Amino acid sequence: MKNVLKAHDLSVYYGENKILENLNLQIPEGKITVLVGANGCGKSTLLRTFARLIKPKAGQIFLEDDLIQKIPTKDIAKRLAILPQGPVAPEGLTVLQLIKQGRYPHQSWLKQWSNEDEKIVNKALEVTQMTDFVDRSVDALSGGQRQRAWIAMTLAQKTDLILLDEPTTYLDMAHQIEILDLLYDLNVEENRTVVMVLHDLNLACRYAHHIVTVRDKQIYAQGKPEEVVTMEMVQNVFRMNCTIIKDPIFGTPLCVPHGKGQKVGR
């Protein structure tokens, strides 16, 4: 299996605070990879470092076979797209204006807006079901609509690799599934490599081909959901007792946390 992103001995600091230390990781091409772990463990930092938004203190990152630090910025934007957590659009920006920004890396003074750009933007609108909202202000959209608009902009970049930081945050259950189904379809139908941070372990198991767990500044485990998500892992990574059963619909691991909810017959 070819790896599209590789980190070797990666260390990342915020000021004097060490966030990641000597981390090694490979992201498989053409798959959905989900990063999971306790709050503050460095998942989002790792994703932003992969996108070259954060400069590592030490170590190397390769995008395919190229050292990412040496790739020109505009070329990076043609090869990977990132959707950070809670992006904010300028006030009054319409959905169409937002999505068109995804084509900017492909523009130059020699190559202005083209029919190809128009087709790609329209396709992104269609795939995300945002065609009817093109003239709507982004800040007037609902949470699910707004997230679809940002994903459409990301798709308009037309990159084979998409990084998303908690794309379902603040969304209700129906909209979470809607967004994850969209990303799943993009992976299956267009062979896009998707890497995302998710908090919900059960949704991570359902949608991921590859799960990476982060603990104590390093990778605790990585692999298929059924290989990684165990009672031992949940205890060691999340400090929580649970029972792991098979999801009755999807056959993926289902984590049932132990706690003090209603007991049968109470």
UniProtKB/TrEMBL annotation:
Compartments where located: Cell membrane
Keywords attached to this entry: ATP-binding, Cell membrane, Ion transport, Iron, Iron transport, Membrane, Nucleotide-binding, Transport
SMART domains in UniProt: AAA
Gene3D superfamilies: P-loop containing nucleotide triphosphate hydrolases (3.40.50.300)
Membrane topology: Peripheral membrane protein
GO molecular function annotations of the record: ATP binding
Domain of life the protein comes from: Bacteria
Every ABC transporter domain range: 5-241
InterPro entries the record matches: AAA+_ATPase, ABC_transporter-like_ATP-bd, ABC_transporter-like_CS, P-loop_NTPase, Siderophore_ABC-ATPase
Entry protein name: ATP-binding cassette domain-containing protein
